């Protein structure tokens, strides 16, 4: 069985600079053979004058990278790339998928959870979202732009040279409230170290939650915010009963699964020396047992939800009941 090909999903609102970044990735001297899937709704195609109007067109660039333009189903394009790879017609070791500026990244991510054959051949590495610092306030009035931020494993700020330091600090704070897991980096005219984009391991089942430190982990008053999407963190120092935890999660997914953009947990289970790690997108999730808790560390369970208008108080009460049952 061959090693699965890492996949990076690149998203961001219209004009945030996705195509500029892709052009840089394809031209940079990195020694990688990247395949890039873009579709016809991009602001400007990477090589639109060379790619025709067929539903799927694939071409190999001079440096060995592969450009694939799709005018239809993503799954079809993914299989076509595999067919050509297996036949020796093309070569690539990483895949980047560019979402359109108005696209919800959820269906793209779900593709790599649902299709068993694709799951064996590709592995979702991370979702990267570009945010236009100059127009972020306007863009974030759109729920889809907030969702793109919420799904992200890493946030890239573009056009930061067009705003002052106060505006930039306020934007970073706002993005942190929406998505407390994603690291924030700056991209300058499409240029950034590829290490910031690749091997993010955002979908690995590991105990790393990626939470940025905050002044208060349990705020008494939730700050007023215009954003529908926010990060909810739940903690417990009491070992959890796995059956009660399962009931809690099943009910949460049944009632609010479509609102749970991303979530991850590292949990202490009663009677079990190992950590239980799980994560998911919407109603699709996976879990596994990780390493044992060390004798000198606090066995604290932490659940992180990035959700769309979640009933936070109801969820907090339900989770708190796990510690007392």
From TrEMBL:
InterPro entries reported in the protein's UniProt record: CobW-likC_sf (IPR036627), CobW-like_C (IPR011629), CobW/HypB/UreG_nucleotide-bd (IPR003495), P-loop_NTPase (IPR027417), Zinc-reg_GTPase_activator (IPR051316)
Q: Which UniProt keywords apply?
A: Chaperone, Hydrolase, Nucleotide-binding
The protein's matches in Pfam families, at most eight in alphabetical order, are given as: cobW, CobW_C
GO terms assigned for molecular function: hydrolase activity; nucleotide binding
Q: Name one GO cellular component term.
A: cytoplasm
Per its record, the protein catalyses: GTP + H2O = GDP + phosphate + H(+)
| Domain CobW C-terminal: start-end pairs | 229-323
Family statement: Belongs to the SIMIBI class G3E GTPase family. ZNG1 subfamily.
What NCBIfam families would the database entry show?
PRK11537.1
Q: What does this protein do?
A: Zinc chaperone that directly transfers zinc cofactor to target proteins, thereby activating them. Zinc is transferred from the CXCC motif in the GTPase domain to the zinc binding site in target proteins in a process requiring GTP hydrolysis.
From the Swiss-Prot or TrEMBL record, give the protein name.
Answer: GTP-binding protein
Q: Which organism is it from?
A: Pseudomonas cremoricolorata
